[in-house]
From TrEMBL:
UniProt protein name: PCAT2 acyltransferase
Domain Phospholipid/glycerol acyltransferase, chain residue ranges per copy: 70-156
Compartment(s): Membrane
Entry keyword Secreted: no
Family in the record: Belongs to the 1-acyl-sn-glycerol-3-phosphate acyltransferase family.
Species per Swiss-Prot/TrEMBL record: Pachyramphus minor
TM annotation in the entry: 12-34
Main localization, broad class: membrane
Length: 160
């Protein structure tokens, strides 16, 4: 019986996940379309609200479809309380759960990830701090960018 369930559930889940991914890509594309100062100026207004609500909801839905049910105990720190949010061990797709539960903050990511089809657009909408492994000054630049965002008094979203 479980094999039969797998034969039915796997294609159904995969189809739903692909649909959610494409909808997320569409919303991310709309949010960053014709944005001035892409990456150097924070998203504001309807663009930021759309990323926070739709991408967060779609990510939670995707994890639910995959069989994850996450309950938050306690209160997630707000932007004024914690402009920098640390998630560890930071080694798997579970980081996406943390992102969804904290309102889709900016993340620190490899610069190469921004050029990935579909995922790169979604990642760009989160306005990541891009780390280039080829740039010898990348570590210094990353620390400076994180510090700038943390001290922006709420203009930038939390950094994870």
């Amino acid at each position: 019986q479980s094999v039969l369930q797998g034969i039915i559930l796997l294609p159904l889940r995969a189809t739903c996940l692909i649909f959610i991914l494409l909808v997320a890509w569409l919303f991310a594309s709309i949010a960053i379309f014709c944005q001035r100062g892409r990456g150097s100026v924070p998203l504001k207004g309807w663009r930021r609200r759309m990323i926070r609500t739709t991408l967060s909801g779609l990510t939670r839905t995707a994890f639910f479809i995959m069989g994850f049910q996450v309950k938050v105990k306690g209160k997630v720190a707000s932007l004024p309380e914690a402009p920098i949010f640390v998630a560890a061990p930071h080694s798997s797709f579970f980081d996406a759960i943390v992102c969804a539960l904290t309102g889709m903050p900016s993340i620190v990511s490899r610069a190469e990830n921004l050029s990935t089809p579909v995922f790169g657009t979604i990642l760009s909408s989160l306005q990541p701090v891009a780390v280039s492994r080829q740039d010898p000054d990348s570590r210094k630049n990353t620390v400076a960018e994180i510090t700038k965002r943390a001290l922006s008094r709420g203009q930038w979203p939390q950094v994870i």
